[in-house]
Design a protein that fits this description.
By secondary structure, the protein is of the alpha/beta class. It contains eleven helices and 17 strands. The strands form five sheets. It has a five-stranded parallel sheet. A five-stranded antiparallel sheet has the order 11-12-13-17-15. A hairpin with a 2-residue loop joins strand 7 and strand 8. Helix 5 packs antiparallel against helix 8. It is globular. The N and C termini lie far apart (about 70 Å).
Length: about 400
């Protein structure tokens, strides 16, 4: 057993005596956004040393200071790429390979890992979850193809929830609103940090993941706001990621099992497609329309996602274009230009629960046709004025 001091694998894990721990660390760690566990050193029966487990005593951390561990992990990655044929990996908790203060060691490990995997698959794709503010995650872009943009996710959530264009950023185990910058300004500042680190990178954009309260619960079940959050996400640059169930409005709040409940395929509880490993506390037939019903409803959240994804895939500007501030200072809206070669778009989101009217600047009157609108009346620009329905999005296209 690994717990035996004679085991050849003992050094695959991290061990310290209590005296060593007290000299160099605290027995208790701080809560982080990706872990509520406060104890990082754990007892092993029959040992006078404790083992290190950042997330839990059931999940002992590997000792990456051991060259054999690094070699084994690289071989495992190569096996999945070569023998199984996967294209890459989503790497959970990527900043916790070493202790948090060893940022350079964490960064250098992922550079080594990527370099070795590229020997068997030159285009291997590695997307990393580094739960931290943008300033702290940018160094990881040297070793990871893409990084999940947490600051952006919370900026979308807080702008939609508060009906006001704001920027948010990770702050300790939670996040904080910066009302001195609107959403678009915060986004551009965020991207500037990435570009100073590396000009070419992939931005992994998302609304929520398996560690967060579901977006529908965070928005108190408001489908119109959930649609708006999806519209913002799917009109931004980057590679969008959807957490399963977002597209049908699944609900869920911590603890973790409640945000990982079974997907609702149909409304029949006897359907063999439905997983029954847990009795859902949030997402049930009485709280969420299942996919089979939403597929037939043109106004459903599912079909909203489907429409926006189809629109994005048809538009070079939405898929590959840059983003520029549109200059409409109304804090009740989010607005930006998306440009790619000859395709120029003006995207506007009404964050409020009331319709608004926007007077276009003279130079923006070239945006004379509606590429997309979920306004009920599909209103067209008239005399440089555009009406946007409550919690709604309109995309204007410049004349060729």
């Amino acid at each position: 057993a690994v717990k035996s001091e004679k085991s050849p694998y003992r050094d695959y894990f991290i061990w310290e005596t209590e005296a060593e721990i007290l000299r160099t660390n605290s027995l208790q760690k701080k809560e982080t956004g990706d872990s509520g566990n406060l104890t990082q050193w754990h007892d092993a029966r029959g040992n006078n040393e404790k083992f290190y487990g950042f997330f839990s005593g059931y999940m002992p951390d590997l000792n990456y200071d051991n060259p054999e561990v690094r070699k084994e992990m690289i071989q495992i990655g190569k096996f999945w790429l070569q023998d199984i044929g996967v294209d890459g990996f989503r790497l959970d908790a990527a900043k916790h390979i070493y202790e948090d203060e060893r940022v350079e060691d964490n960064k250098n490990w992922w550079i080594e890992y990527r370099r070795e995997l590229e020997k068997v698959k030159p285009d291997v794709y590695l997307v990393g979850e580094v739960w931290d503010k943008t300033e702290s995650i940018t160094p990881f872009i040297h070793g990871l193809s893409a990084l999940f943009n947490f600051d952006l996710a919370f900026s979308i959530l807080e702008s939609v929830r508060n009906e006001k264009s704001v920027t948010a950023h990770i702050h300790g185990p939670s996040w904080k609103i910066d009302e001195n910058r609107n959403f678009t300004q915060g986004y551009l500042d965020n991207q500037g940090l990435f570009k100073r680190e590396m000009q070419e990178y992939y931005d992994a954009i998302f609304l929520s993941n398996h560690d967060q309260n579901r977006i529908m619960s965070a928005l108190e079940g408001d489908i119109s706001k959930a649609k708006l959050a999806a519209s913002i996400l799917l009109t931004l640059p980057g590679t969008p990621y959807l957490y399963y169930g977002e597209e049908i409005g699944m609900l869920g709040k911590k603890p973790d099992p409640n945000i990982r409940e079974p997907f609702l395929w149909t409304n029949s509880i006897t359907d063999t497609l439905r997983t029954k490993w847990i009795k859902p506390a949030f997402t049930s037939d009485s709280s969420v329309w299942p996919l089979s019903i939403q597929m037939t409803d043109e106004e459903s959240l599912f079909n909203h996602y489907k429409t926006l994804i189809h629109l994005r895939n048809r538009s070079m500007a939405l898929t590959f274009g840059d983003l520029q501030e549109a200059g409409y200072g109304n804090t009740l809206t989010i607005s930006y230009y998306r440009n790619h070669e000859r395709e120029k778009l003006l995207v506007m989101h009404n964050l409020t629960s009331s319709p608004i009217s926007i007077q276009l600047k003279d130079e923006d009157k070239i945006f004379s046709s509606v590429l997309y609108s979920n306004n009920p009346d599909g209103s067209q620009p008239e005399n440089g004025s555009i009406d946007i329905a409550a919690n709604s999005t309109i995309i204007l296209k410049a004349a060729d």
